[in-house]
Write a structure and sequence with these properties.
about 100 residues, mainly alpha
Length: about 100
């Protein structure tokens, strides 16, 4: 599903890496079905990819993800600082999605 939004193999590998990687395709599908524009989904997936890398680098699992970890990661990520005001809803959607599948 992510391949509908990105074609570069390095980007695809990055989006599928880390603890959130296995859930990237289902999140992309949810966003698409929810009617988000392609450009918005691309930004949202990059932000989730940044979060997944942050989690991986600190040894966290997907089960460790909560609002506090998201907040901490946003302080760390230069890309997120510039975009977060318009795209912070993705993290609520992500948490709801993960909780909905039992994580």
């Amino acid at each position: 599903m992510v391949e509908r939004f990105y074609t570069d193999p390095r980007t695809l590998a990055r989006l599928h890496a880390g603890p959130l990687g296995p859930h990237t395709d289902s999140l992309a599908e949810l966003l698409s079905e929810s009617g988000y524009a392609r450009s918005t989904i691309r930004i949202q997936l990059r932000l989730v990819g940044d979060l997944s890398c942050w989690l991986k680098n600190r040894g966290f699992r997907v089960e460790d993800l909560d609002e506090e970890k998201i907040h901490q990661s946003l302080e760390y990520s230069p890309r997120s600082r510039g975009l977060i005001s318009g795209y912070q809803a993705i993290f609520g959607i992500l948490l709801e999605h993960l909780r909905g599948i039992g994580l």
